[in-house]
Amino acid sequence: MNQNFTIRVRRRPYSGNLWILFAILGIGILQLINPAMAQQGTTFKITGTVKDSLGLGIPGVSLQVKGQSNMGSVTDGDGKFTLNAIANATVVVSSVGFKTKTFIASVDKTRVDLILSSDDNNLSDVVVTAFGKKERREAMVGSVTSITPSKLKIPSSNLTNAMAGQIAGVVAYQRSGQPGLDNSSFFIRGVTTFGYKQDPLILVDNVELTANDLARLQVDDIASFSILKDASATALYGARGANGVILVTTKEGVEGNAKVNVRFENSISQSTQNLDIADPITFMKMYNEAITTRNPLGVPRFTQNDIFNREQTINNAPGSNKYVYPAVNWIDELFKESTNNQRLNGSVSGGGKVARYYIGTSYNRDNGILKVSPVNNFNNNVKLENYQLRSNVNINVTKTTEIVLRLSGTFDEYNGPITDDGSFSADLYKKALHTSPVLFPAFYPADPSTGIDTHILFGNSSTEGTGNTVGYSNPYADMMKGYKSFSRSRMSAQLELNQDLGFLTKGLSFKGMFNTNRYSYFDLTRQYSPFFYNVASYDRISNQYSLNWINNQPGQASEYLSFEPGFKDVNTFVYMQGVIDYSRQLGNKHNISSTIIATRQQRLYANATDPQTNLPSLQYSLPYRNVGISGRLGYSYDSRYFAEFNFGYNGSERFAEKNRFGFFPTIGGSWVVSNEAFWNADVKKVMNKLKVRASYGLVGNDAIGAQRFFYLSNVNLNGGN
């Protein structure tokens, strides 16, 4: 700061101490020239957090006062730090996998919150592990793999399909491409449970959800995605972690101005592989060949005249009639080549020092590839609409207390054809492949002159020896006869308390969580009974034919839709969790950490039916409960040697009283060879990172059968009838 000033001196005698005057005058001049020099050398304390661009605290970040070897700090598991600094000194903030950042220490700003941007040349150094604990990648003993959420952005509204081929040791397979039934199933390091639950435990913000909930989760709302593979990584989940664990955390607000993101996608979907089926002429010839092969004296099903007439139909020759001599490609009759899907996602986030927010919403529409007839006044094609709303709010009640409120809702609306197994991809497609292409057409055109124009005239053929019994399945009629609808929703409310207990002892913290969610589902069908016809007579000269109504019996056919209620499901879920964390750095090389976790969960089903008898059951009406205590103890030396002990002690009321609780311990260690002194720059040119780890442990699974209580025997007294 530059200031102009004038000193006027009158010549008058002074009878005081001149040195006092000069001292006062000198101090004033120095302060005017550089007021900051008054703060130089002042030591004070700085507190704050270090987070990544997604708002997750980064553990193990180094903060070092430049030029002061005795002034440094490291962030804890939540990215919080306390640093002694000198006024106007430069503080260097660094962590592997992130770009280094600096700031100037100032006595006017004792609270500093930093955001580090990731280094594109390095993998993210922070991985979310069991119960949301964040660890540096090199410090992990268990096998944990993380996926960058951006890599999951593919042209699909189903998140489970985006995971295929992304993770080593995870096998993903998809049974169907139908919207609503297109979830992928997973094996983590093979099948570990035979006979019942084989899929991994899925946790979103530490709450257990289903594969369908994971499938509908929006990539734009995800902050981190981790897969826990081995016993050392999953031991804290005890009797729930035998098949591996999928951990997902959603985004939170970051301090700053409101940030709005909007993304719209339109994608084209089509079947990846279609079977090459025989054309109608080849079908007829091979059918005849099969008959004569089995019985040389057998009579061929199709005459040469039948084959000739179908050839005329295919070639659209003059005088041909495709309704009398059909040659149907059932795949083309039912399915389109492709379809369009739409996705719209939006979010707004921001906040200040006290409160931060993240609000996300989305709309997805997935369409099937079934053809829709203009004759029907309803849409029989598959359509799945998904609506989601998510809100995460973080509030700093005090400097050491944070409250997090999470609200979310997911709503599905489905419409599709009525089929035997509920899946057109496995049912209608199968019927299209197995139905004869030359026996009857998909439908006959309406003829107002006959008065038969108020319904669709579906083609069919009567059973041999009868004239009024439908003998075959018409895939086109099965697709057009009605539709099934279902509505599914899940609403969740979650409250978290994060308390820093550093005032008791440094590195101590507590986290509490309460979650409750409600799930509901119902379906219904609306359908009519099709009218089936076949050709009764044909005049080749006029090329006219007459029809015979095959199912001409009371109650066999209808022109109006009937309604039938379907399955209903309502259940509630309550989960409570308490975590005490302690981490401490002893000197410059020793680090210790410990965690104690207590959990309790309960699920209650409203429609309590026995899956074996499908009848109401008292046993299945009782709440499903699971309680447990878990712990972890870790030690590391000089970022080279790591040791860890984990345990889970879980109880499930599905087992007998004496076998209700199980103890699942694991022990492991790792050695980061590349952090040794002998791993010099020349070696790093060939291999920059080498880590050796080993672990051994036990994990469990209480979902090993459909029975409500495994220790109770079921006796069927009518089993001999």
Q: Please, could you describe this protein's structure?
A:
This protein is mainly beta. Helix content is 12%, strand content 40%. A 13-stranded antiparallel sheet has the order 17-18-19-20-21-24-25-28-29-30-31-32-33. It has a 5-stranded mixed sheet with strand order 10-15-16-13-14.
Based on the structure given, which CATH architecture of the domain at 140-255 is correct?
A: Beta Complex
Helix tally?
Answer: 11
Q: What fraction, in percent, of the residue positions are helical?
A: 10-25%
Structural shape: elongated
CA(first)-CA(last) distance: 103 Å
* Sheet with the most strands, sense and barrel status: 13 strands, antiparallel
What structural category arises from helix and sheet content? mainly beta
The CATH class of the domain at 140-255 = Mainly Beta
CATH H-level homologous superfamily name of the domain at 140-255: TonB-dependent receptor, plug domain
Give average pLDDT, whole number. Answer: 85
CATH fold call of the domain at 140-255: Ferric Hydroxamate Uptake Protein, Chain A, domain 1
- Beta-strand percentage? 35-45%
Radius of gyration: 36 Å
User: If strands are numbered along the chain, what order do they take across the biggest sheet?
Assistant: 17-18-19-20-21-24-25-28-29-30-31-32-33
Strand count: 33
Point out poorly predicted stretches. 1-39
Features:
11 helices, 40% strand, elongated, 5-stranded mixed β-sheet, Immunoglobulin-like, disordered N terminus, mainly beta, 13-stranded antiparallel β-sheet, 721 residues, single chain, Ferric Hydroxamate Uptake Protein, Chain A, domain 1
